[in-house]
Every structure is written in structure tokens, then in C-alpha cells.
Amino acid sequence: MTALRLEGIRLRFGGVTALDGLGFTVEPGTVHALIGPNGAGKSSCFNVISGHYRPEAGTVAFGDDDLTHLPPHEIARRGVGRAFQNIALSAHETVLDNLMVARHRLTRSGFVATALGLSRVRREERLHQARVTEIAEFAGLGGKLDTLAGALAYGDRKRVELARALASEPGIVLLDEPAAGMPSHEKWDIAHLIVSVRDALGISVLLVEHDMPMVMAIADRVTVLDFGRRIAGGTPAEVQNSPEVIAAYLGSSHPEAGAVTVSPAREETS
Amino acid sequence: MSETTTLRRAGQAAPSSSSRAGRAALVRRAAPWLLLLPLCAVPLYLDGSWLIIGILGMSTAVGAIGLTLLVGTAGQLSLAHAFFVAVGAYTYAYLAGESGPSAAGGLGLPTLPAALAAIAAAGLAGLLFSPVAARVGGLYLGVASLALVFIGEHVLKNATPLTGGYNGREVATLAVGGFEVNGGAPGLWVLGVPFTGRERLWYLALAVLVVSIVVAGRIVRGRPGRALQLMRDNPAAAGSMGVPAHRYKAAAFTVSSVFAGAAGVLTALAFEFIVPQYFTLHLAVLYLAMAVIGGLGSVPGAVAGGLFVTALPLVLDRFSGSLGFLAAPGSGGLDAAMFARFVFGALLVIVLIAEPGGLAGLWRRLRPSRR
């Protein structure tokens, strides 16, 4: 079991500081929620961890592996899985094919071996299809493996997105708003699923989610971001009572900026 | 349409008919192979002037398969396909050609190794360009690859000892163990039909096409294909699934060049004499048209597109006498080639607007029972 550690991450886009000395640790085997108002830097933080953005300063480490300067595919190989917020599936491929892509780091068959149809290629394919089928059933996609991803209902596509992240057999999985836009009962299905990812699969979860009741119910630890900084962290109960968090969410005077920044635009939309 | 789907599903659910479902799957798998039988019989019935249309169609279909892998599956636009076809064609002609008193030289290698080496050379040329292909994406790669076509044209016209320059060069007859594959020696009669160059080459083209379809199908459906498709649809997601983008873009480009090389060798064998005027931007655009009309990313679609785009002007030309509206080639009027170009242009527009899946998409729509 390995911990994901961020230290002193600074990320800037031109003059805008997206992340400002951000640091926190996701302990192994926990559901760790990353919350904050829109534009607080949650998705930027995910993009730094998974290598899509390169920070100006700071380090990201997963166990003994320094991820800071690695490209996305190398980070994936080291066991960091990711589900995307705006569903990033191949719409014209089946659910099975969409999930099989995630086995990329665990499989070997290259162009030549595949073209020749070697027996080890077919064996590998069978083996991994069996495992992917298990994962799909775990994620509640049992009978839908042969459906085209684009033909699925929204909620199921979100599940495929989540199942794909799991199918890479990661040590930690980053879930970017896995329940966004879902009706309440489906949301709680996803919440249960996330908890069993931790308990049954032993995978740590780093979660960005706007639905506060859900976050407070399933997270072991919560880190609160505002303006790219960590303003609070701890158990859900500790965070809920933190004055900084209340201030950030209700839009009263910002403790760091020193000015009154009441902005309805930063209210939660979910 | 939906009735058939439910019926089939109900049939599969019944335990007694599971073997019937298995047999149905077997028939579906075997059906394309049964199609080969009539194709193998074609040289018994058609004369050489028709066979050559089929041979050229199958040759370009091989190249179109390569391009659909690159443009359709990997989402990388390339206008350089004609260049790699030329590399295959000229490498074979040079390696297998005798160095005689004629303008173009040759190494006089045994022809079968020369053909394989020519395919490898096209792959190598693709590999050499692949660092560019890996770093430039989509439309920009199209522009970058355009340069290759012009460089290629220049080299073909000026490297006279290799290519014969403007006047082109002869292509040696391919022989396997003394048996000429696109020639008449030794004499061969099958069911009373003399099998000379074109009859024999028909089978070679058919064999190469079948191998290409099988190989490309495996790649598209297998691990590399899935990686390429996700890279096309969502590069960020592909990265996070562990797909090294640069390597896969480069590999897709190289693989596509190998197919182009095979198409080049076949085309050279069919023409028996190759000239630089064939391997131009026009050919590159025609290849793109094949891939688009067939349906980007679909291997059977590329085959259909390749056959159609190649055969249409040739068939029209054969009938131009009886088709009153077509002028004789070179007369300045609307000849078969010109008319075919209008048809391709119109088809491209129709495909892009009405059925972006191309012929393959149309086929799927007509048979919705297969998911």
C-alpha cells in the first residue's frame, strides 16, 4: 500500500496562479475528498498528479516513485488510475473495448505480434477480457459489455468511465466528479461503489465531488482548496466546522485576500 | 429491424439452441472466406483487360487499408501516402531490375526478396518520417507530409540512375522459383484458359489483399488498435490509460507505410512500367478519397473504397464508346477520368454530410442486427 504525496505544488497559467504551494497526502486505503468552490484548483490538481500539467514547483510522489516530471503514460504505469469528469470514452467502441484499453499497461502485444495473431496474443486477450468482465460486473455494467459506449445512458457512461479507471488495476484512482449530474438514487449507488473500491479492491480513492452529503458520508479525509491553496483538511467533521471552509463556501470576506469578495458566480451549481 | 434483434436474442437465451447460435457464428465467420471462391474463379472468365482493373483495384485497396489505419483509426492525416507507394514501387524496380544499357540501373536481385525488401523499405521510410508524425498531429501532419510528396516527385524525376527519370523505368517480372507471377513463363493452362501475366497476378493481388485485410483487422481490434482509437478520441485519456502517445503515433505511421509499400510493389507489377507522373499529390488525394468514401477506420470500407475509386474511371473508359456523354481521353472533352473525378468529389461531399461512416457505415445501417 502506497501513499500519494503532494508537496508545495505551484502551477500558473500566465498571470493566474491555479495552485499555490499545495500539499496534502492521500493515505493508503482511504477515500480522500478534494473539495472547494468552482475554480479552486481541484481539476488542475488532478491534471498535475496525472501528468497532464507540469507544475512550476513542488513534487508529486506515489510511494517511492517521483511522478513530478513523468509523462501521463508513465504515471499510469506506476499505478495511478484516473476517471475523467467529462466522459472521455470512445463512443463508437463497445464497453468491453473501452475497458480493455485500460489494460494497456498490463499487456504486451505489440503491432507485429497482434498482426501475426500469435497464440500468446489470443491468450492475453482472453485472460484480460475475463478480468475486465469481472470489473464491469463490479461496477454494475454486467450485461452491457457489448453495447456501444455512445449508446449508453449518461449514468452508465459515468460508470464505464469509473470502471475503466479501475480496469488499469491502479493503486490509487482519481475520480473527477463521478456522480455529477446524476439523480439522487444513482448518486448513492456510485457512493456505495466508491466505498467498495476502497474496501473490496483495496484501492485508495482521491475524489473531487460537489455533492457535500455524499462527500461527508464516504470520505475518510477531506482536503479543502480555495484559490489554489489548501485552506483546511482533516476528517469530514473537522472540516465542516472549520471557519475558513464556511467562509470560502459562503463567500464572506476572504481570510487571505483581506478584501470582501462576495461573488455569486462562485456559488455551487450542483 | 429491431424484431430481428429480439428474435436472435430470444433464440440465444434458449439453452437447446446454443449450438445453433454457435453454428450461426461459425457461418458468419466463414462467409467472407466463401466469397473468395468466386473471386478465385474470375481469371477463368474475364480477359486481361478486365483483370487489370481488378488487379489495380486490389493493389490500391491494400494501400487504402494502410491509410485508413492511419487516418481513421489513429486520427492522423497524411497526404504522403503516394510517396510511400512510390518507395515500394521504385525500390522493387531498382532491386530486381537488371543493370543493362537502358537508362535506369538495377541490382538484379532475386525478385521475391526484392519485393519483400521493397515493402520493408517503405516501412523504413515511414519509420524515418515517424518522429515528425509523432510530434505533429492531425491537420498539421497533413501539411508536413505534403512535403514528402513533392520531395518524392522531385527525386523520382531526377535520380535517373535509380528511377529512370521522367521517362520512368521498367519493372522486372516477379518470379518465384522460376515461375513467373506476372509473366507467361513457364506456360500454364487451367481448364483450357491460358494463364499468363494478368491471370497469375490476379491471384497474387488477391492473396496480398486477403493477408492485408486479416492483418489490419487484427491490429484494429487488438491492443494496438484500441490504444490508437482512444488516442484519436481523447489523447488525455489515452495517456492516463498508459498509452505512450509519441510511440503509438510513430508506429501507426510506420505500419501504414508498410501497407503502402505492398501496394507499390503490386502496382508496379501490374503496370510493368512505372513513371513519376503516377505518384503525385493526385494519387495521395485519391487514397484519402478511398479511405473517406469507404468509411474512416473501417478495413472493409477501405477495400470497397479502394476498388471503387480505382475501378470507376477505368470501367467508364472501357464503356466510353457506348456511353454517349463521355469524350475520348485527351480530346479535351469530359473523358472518363475527368468524369470519375467529379463523381469522387460529389461522393466525398455526400459521405461527409449524409453518412460520415462511409460505405462501411451504410453497410452497418443496412444490417443493424449485428449490434
Return the structural class of chain B. Answer: mainly alpha
The largest sheet of chain B is: 2 strands, antiparallel
Number of domains of chain A: 2
Rg of chain B is 22 Å
CATH class type of the largest domain in chain A? Alpha Beta
> CATH topology of the largest domain in chain A, which one?
Rossmann fold
Strand order of the largest sheet of chain A: 6-7-8-3-9-10
Helix content of chain A: 25-40%
CATH superfamily of the largest domain in chain A: P-loop containing nucleotide triphosphate hydrolases
The string of secondary-structure elements of chain B, in order, is HHHHHHHHEEEEEHHHHEHHHH
Please characterize this protein's 3D structure.
The complex is a heterodimer of chains A (270) and B (371). Chain A has 270 residues and is of the alpha/beta class. Chain A folds into two domains: 1-79 and 172-270, P-loop containing nucleotide triphosphate hydrolases (Rossmann fold), CATH 3.40.50; 90-169, no CATH class. Chain A has ten helices and ten strands. A six-stranded mixed β-sheet of chain A has the order 6-7-8-3-9-10, with helices on both faces. The two termini of chain A are 34 Å apart. Mean pLDDT of chain A is 88; it is low at 254-270. Chain B is mostly helical and 371 residues long. Chain B has a domain at 35-278. In chain B, 71% of the residues lie in helices and 3% in strands. In chain B, a hairpin with a 2-residue loop joins strand 2 and strand 3 (179-180). In chain B, helix 13 (281-294) packs across helix 14 and helix 14 runs antiparallel to helix 15 (336-354). In chain B, 47% of the residues are buried. Classes of the chains: A alpha/beta (270), B mainly alpha (371). The A-B interface holds A 50-52, 71-73, 75-77, 81-82, 84, 88-91, 93-94, 97-98, 100-105, 107, 109-111, 114-117, 121, 124-125, 146-148, 164, 168 and B 214-216, 218-219, 222-227, 229-230, 233-234, 236-245, 251, 255, 371.
